[in-house]
Amino acid sequence: MKAPTTLHITWDRDLIFNGTSADAAIVLDSAGKAGPSPVQTLGFALSACMGMDVVHILRKGRYDLRGLTVSLVAERAPEDPHRITSVALTFAITGAVPPEQVQRAIDLSHEKYCSVWHSMRQDISFSARFTIAA
Fold it and tell me: Mean pLDDT by 10-residue block, N- to C-terminus, for the chain (134 residues)?
């Protein structure tokens, strides 16, 4: 069984909080100035979760992955609570990786492995695309 994730946040000033979890630390800022906002942090978490899955799957398959960048665009509802209503991810792969293997890795992450995605509302529109540069 996976251990629970624990963290603590402490109000610093204005709408800025300092957070810690194990050895990790983060500053959260409602305005996104001193650190990412909570929604930006959710976007980072989703991008990193899926990116880590894709790297793990492709490296396990022994493909020539030399680089990966993940970009995210999240649309938000116009009314409170301004929740995320759609997510579009773009994976930019560097290396000689077959396109069908990149698609397979993205699909496995989205459908099975990414704990962040599976913790979010499943009615959020999701799309993912990728590019490959040698």
Answer: 94 96 96 96 97 98 97 97 97 97 98 98 98 94
Q: Helices then strands (H, E): number in the chain?
A: 3, 6
Task: Give the whole-angstrom CA distance, residue 21 versus residue 45.
Answer: 14
What is the residue-wise DSSP string for 6-27? Answer: --EEEEEETTEEEEEETTEEEE
Q: What is the Rg, in whole angstroms, of the alpha carbon atoms belonging to the chain?
A: 17
pLDDT of residue 104: 98
- Report pTM: 0.94
The separation between the first and the last C-alpha atoms of the chain, rounded to the nearest angstrom, is 40
pLDDT at 79: 97
How far apart are the C-alpha atoms of 37 and 33, rounded to whole Å? 8
Residue 26 Cα distances to 9, 20, 22, 42, 87, angstroms: 9, 6, 11, 13, 23
Output the DSSP codes for 49-78: HHHHHHHHHHHHTT-EEEEEEEEEEEEE-S
Collect all residues with Cβ–Cβ distance below 8 Å to 28 and sequence separation of at least 6: 9, 16, 17, 18, 19, 35, 36, 37, 38, 41
